[in-house]
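Sample 3 of the quickstart, ligand 2-acetamido-2-deoxy-beta-D-glucopyranose:
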Amino acid sequence: MVVEDMFYFNKDILVIKHQKKSPMLLRMSLLMFSMVCGVFICYVCLKQTSIHARTILLELQQIEKPSRSRFNLIDISYLHYPNPVTFNRSECAQNPVQLFAILTNQRSGSGWFETLLNSHINVSSNGEIFSVAERRVNVSTIVQTLDKIYNLDWFNSASKNECSAAIGLKWMLNQGLMEHPKEIVDYFNCRGVSVIFLFRRNLLRRMVSTLANSYDRYAKLLNGTHKSHVHSAEEADTLSKYKPTINSKSLLADLKDMERSAATAIEHFNTTRHMILYYEDLLRNRTKLKEVLEFLGLPVIELTSRQVKIHKGPLSEHINNWNEVAKTLKGTTYESFLQADYSS
Ligand SMILES: *[C@@H]1O[C@H](CO)[C@@H](O)[C@H](O)[C@H]1NC(C)=O
Ligand SMILES: *[C@@H]1O[C@H](CO)[C@@H](O)[C@H](O)[C@H]1NC(C)=O
Ligand SMILES: *[C@@H]1O[C@H](CO)[C@@H](O)[C@H](O)[C@H]1NC(C)=O
Ligand SMILES: *[C@@H]1O[C@H](CO)[C@@H](O)[C@H](O)[C@H]1NC(C)=O
Ligand SMILES: *[C@@H]1O[C@H](CO)[C@@H](O)[C@H](O)[C@H]1NC(C)=O
Ligand SMILES: *[C@@H]1O[C@H](CO)[C@@H](O)[C@H](O)[C@H]1NC(C)=O
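Result:
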């Protein structure tokens, strides 16, 4: 509906142009027109977000069917033509850009996922921008930060060039996201930001990774340095030698909390255009990455990462009080976390 109206207006502009009235009158009427148009679009944007989201859901279901064209899958309001103030998009000014946000938790594979995305020549995923507390003190600072990123004016090592076709960041649920869900959902829907949820299915493994990572923050096992992500099998071996002890008394409640927090996030952001990814599925099946690229309207190419997984093999080898943990989870809905395993 929005789209049709905009095309209709464009035709009007053409008609006015051809009439060659006095330049002053023409300019005035164009000015008036663009003001009315702006107000109208903003009104529609605010008004239509819920209807819009439903349309997108329908379209998402159609993504199953492979298609050659990048754009017939994606609603036009998710394609942007940013006008950065710090540089000129020059030859790529005509290439549309998609905006995205990866909503996730610490130790859920998002570092690895981001290196995969950034190996694509047209993707800039700018990392954990909101780990810096000043950027998330209130909604205005959050919006200012997002505006700068989505306008392509944010510079860091992930920044590409004028030909970026998808731009985004990863955002941890505990970094202001769940404190202002309504405002952020409105922003996402109004600006046409697509959401990629990235979660882990095996929350016990996430717990091991979290405990080991916070231990290493102090122990600095790799020659006196702390690393959250590693690039060689030796480094992974060294880090995985430490076996955390899990608090079995609070284990069930802790797992339930982790589960609930993910469910709440999906519920809050359910009106956005989104997809849900699981770390385990990405590890097991690279065709998931193809789905991500299609979701972002990007040319599908092979993605690569140099990161190496730290905790491989059965969990029993990575938990100090394994028997106690196993006993606690036996017979509960979380029992499968004990068995689930990956070899690579
Ligand atoms: C941006 O670059 C294009 C072509 O390289 C040029 O035509 C245009 O004038 C430039 N725009 C600005 C604002 O510098
Ligand atoms: C948000 O925080 C910034 C920086 O601390 C401050 O300057 C600004 O006034 C605050 N805005 C609101 C609406 O509270
Ligand atoms: C991707 O980047 C390349 C090189 O910078 C550019 O030629 C191409 O047009 C870009 N593709 C898209 C879809 O923006
Ligand atoms: C630590 O130091 C040893 C000996 O100097 C070296 O062989 C090894 O590669 C270093 N490891 C890392 C992770 O830097
Ligand atoms: C989103 O979640 C809310 C709260 O659970 C629910 O009322 C609403 O129907 C959901 N909307 C969609 C589009 O799923
Ligand atoms: C990988 O995922 C795709 C769809 O995402 C599915 O069709 C395919 O069967 C999966 N392959 C394996 C080996 O699980």
